[in-house]
Design a protein that fits this description.
heterodimer, A: 259 residues, alpha+beta, 5 helices, 12 strands, B: 887 residues, mainly beta, Immunoglobulin-like, Ferric Hydroxamate Uptake Protein, Chain A, domain 1, Maltoporin, Chain A, 3 domains, five-stranded mixed β-sheet, 5% helix
Amino acid sequence: MKKNIKTFNFSLILFLYSFITNAQAYKATYKITYISNLTNSSVRTESGLLIIKANEGSVYATKNYFKQDSILRLVNAGTISKYDVMNDSYPRTSFKNHIQKTYNNQMMVVPTQIIANTYVYSQKNSLNWQLLPDTSTIKGYKCVKATTTFEGRDYVAWYSTDIPISDGPHKFWGLPGLIIKIADTKNHYTFELESFEKFANNFPKFERSDPTFEITYEKFKQLRKDENENPLKVFQSQGFYPVGESISKPLNRNIIERF
Amino acid sequence: MKKSFYYCLTIILVFPFGQVSFSQTIITGKVSDKAQNKALSNAIITVNKLNTEITIGYGMSKPSGQYEIKSNANADSLTLNIKMLGYAAQRINIANKNQSINFELEESSIELKEVKVKPDPIKKYGDTLSYAVSAFKDKNDRVIADIIKKLPGIEVSPNGQILYQGEPINKYYIEGMDLLEGRYKLANENLNVEAVTDVEILENHQPVRMLNGVVHSEKAALNLKLKKNITTTGQVSLGAGIDPAYLLRDVNITPMLFTKNTQFLATYQTNNVGRNSASQLVRLTPGVYRGESGIENKQDWVGIQKLTNPAFKENRWLNNNSHIGSINILKKLKNNLELRLIGDYTNDVQLQTGYTKTTFFGSEADSITLLENKRNDLYFNNLKTDFTLQKNSAGKYLKNSLQIKAYWDSQTGILRNTNGTIIQQVSVPFYTLSNNYKDFFKVGKSLLTLNSSISLERKPQQLSVSPVPFATLLNADKFIQDIQQNVLQSSFFTENSVQYLKSLKGFSFDTQLGFLVEKQALESDILLQNLIKTRSVESGEFRNNLNWLNQKYYVHLQSRYRKQKLNINLSTLLNFRRFAIEDAALSKSENLNRLTFEPRLGLNYDLNNYLTINTSASKSNSFGDINQMYYGYLLTTYREIKRMNVPLLQTSSYSTSAGINYRNPVNSTFASFTYSYSFRENNLLFTNIINPNGSVERNAIEQDNNAYNQSLNGSVSKYFSKIKTTLSIGTNVFKQQSQQFINNGLTEVIMNGISPNLRFSSSLSKWFGLEYAYKLSSIKNIISEIPKPTIIQQNHDLKLNFNPAEKWYFGIITELYINNFNATQNLFSDIIFRKTVGKKKIDLEAIGSNIFNSESLLSVSNGAFNYVETSYDLRTTQVVFKARFPL
């Protein structure tokens, strides 16, 4: 197992390295509006960043996830202490993963944090898009409608062939143009493009200090389901035994995946 | 179950229909690079209905370059599109049948259409308001102060102090670090606006991180977020010019460096164009320790008869020749320690010319009028250093600062009145050495704090006047040519306390035990001199040999309660004070022991996200200082001789206030209103005996008296993002009521004032913007029920900015000053031409100031027992050429 982790990290570095070659890069920012909890229907917003390396692949995570990562890097380098981090200004996100897409093999590599551990799984692009004739102009781009079903929700997407990049926010991709807007039919999760610009900085590298466990997509589905329904069980399965009386309450959050 | 039902339904409904109407077409092929003849992957191929944007099938080329698209359409022809980043798109029409089509793409740099979000001008996260600089910036903004003064909810007062919702900010950070210790004009007026992305207001900012969430703060701090992690910025500007009498220069060299661990700012500035650069070295945040109190105020014992500076833009009247230098270095060491070094040097010569007409109100004679023509030279020469070691993390707070300040100031005044010419010479040096130490310890879940400050001060000061005033009083014969007042004050001060802080759920209790010792000595004598000999005034009442000891022992209990939207503060302070004051030579002394109880109650409540109300009530006691109590006469100016042969001044103050704050960052609206009322009881009344020649003997008598003070402040500001305009209006209304003793009569003095103001700044279009400010101040005194004339002064301030072409700027600054006591209106105009050249944005400027050559300004001030008209000679027309290089 230990060896496994190391090899994986190595391949991750290679993956990132391949990006730091010189090619065009773009940054798409999406505004995410979502209902995190159906009982009090509290609406939250976050920003999602999709960094695209032309014709090669992309990395997607929320802005706060990127920020957390930069903070973690400073903590690991000893520039700031963990104390400084644990306050109200620490960036929080409901999307505790980042998604690395590779266009050639149509695979996603998704490091995900579940309770106390970080796991990583690979997922093939299996989206089956239905193209529709409806058109609309969003953010100045001519868009065409398409629909699909994914991880338990039905989605309506608007993509634009003006940007010939077959990508989008979260795990959405595979249309003949960039996804400008996508929402599930119940409007629980909406992603809408806010900006699209050239990206001149170094390609993002993620730094997670804890070991990463490689799992299958099926295992991920199980863990994610358990996390929402019985977090204590997952916590215990990760080798933590909370002291004192602990009653496990289901979180019952309205997570994006509905397995 | 439900899903599979829909699935079946779809198949039943769609499938047969599709089967009947359409047949499937499969198009395959290969995509390659024309020039290099290599396979291309990730090209996007779409099949559209003929000549439409309706896509019916699509596919991407694989690493081998192969693609395959299936489509269903009952049409004869189809349109095939191929697009790929970095290659020219192709579009062909084909027959609707199975076929193979290969594409050879040509490289082409196609610019994709970009959309950029305009950042919300104001964002709010928790207690932080973030103003996006780009939303407020226009082409003519150079330094960050240009932006800050435009932000809604923020005001910048004429001395450069930044107010948020009417209250001064308590810290000015750059990237979270306090480099300047409140001398923030240094950064504000020199930091290049291009280096900053956001101006943040941290509401309820507690500067001590350990106290964050434990001790509530009502003050706000300001933080600048920089664009880059490592920023070198600042400016260099070189200017030269002429006015009718002088060659002018205006030089400013200010480099800055900001990195994660080091911050550095240095400046050298010299000018004689009327820019008071020394104001950049003045601390503008409220201080904690003695000598650190807010805006610096060095109290001198003696002075020349000054000409009151007009309450008007400095560069109109300041006749200066100044040099300032400052170095500020902050370095983060290991373990969150910060080391900071500050050194400031000022050398300035200021010339004041003009005349004053002083009318003294008296209960007997109303008409003592004194006309004085003045020429004053003021020399400022001072060096200040501050060496601070600080640790401010969530787990520990420690701060020690050692400060050394030395002033070698002097003044010369030549004054003509109806009796002739009077020469005044003053030397007012001041030396101080102080150390302040503060240390927080965690004791279990509680906090223990040690505070210790210690300081030494020395003021050897001197005034000489020729010819001799108060000759009869001083018993000086006609052969005496001049008089010299010598004063030496030396002080030792220490304050030490232990503080224990414990929090319990919503409550926190803060107990402080401490003591203060202030030991001062005042020596003074008056010398009478002629060419041959010098003698001191024999009579003992013209000498001081005062020993002053003030001790204070206190217990201070502060309890706070915080629950979500409510914040209650109760402070109870019990002071025991001992004064031992003695002048053995005059056999005068006073010993006073007093126990005082000084409570304060404050309450803050957030009505909702936008509205906050606050109210407070307090009682406090204060006692006179050494300059309010001495037994021998002191000649403080050529026509004022003072002694305070009275008991110690004791004042009890009661005050209440209530306010409401509204801030809505969503539609950028800010408002605040505050009402305050205070009541003061004094045991002494200061008296003035006005001699027919206008000289004043000040004294004090024991007489209980009261003073009342009421004021209402309100302001509203709003930013209209569509037209990039900030509008703000505000007003201040006050009424002061007190008793004065004038020429042996007790007089009731009432002062009523109102001062509304309006401010408007707008970037209407790309080539035109304007800023306008209006201020009216109306003051009316009523003295023993006799109303005195109302003084109304109005300022209009209009700045028009034109950008006729890219990189060209033309500005007109016009000010109109109107008052109701003389018919003249003062109009001032400046014009500025600026051309920006090169990539580095070097500004070349020509500035013509006071082009209508207004020569003097008449203003009026209303004292409790006098009415002073001042005519101040202004700077004449001048032209300066300047080159400014942003770093």
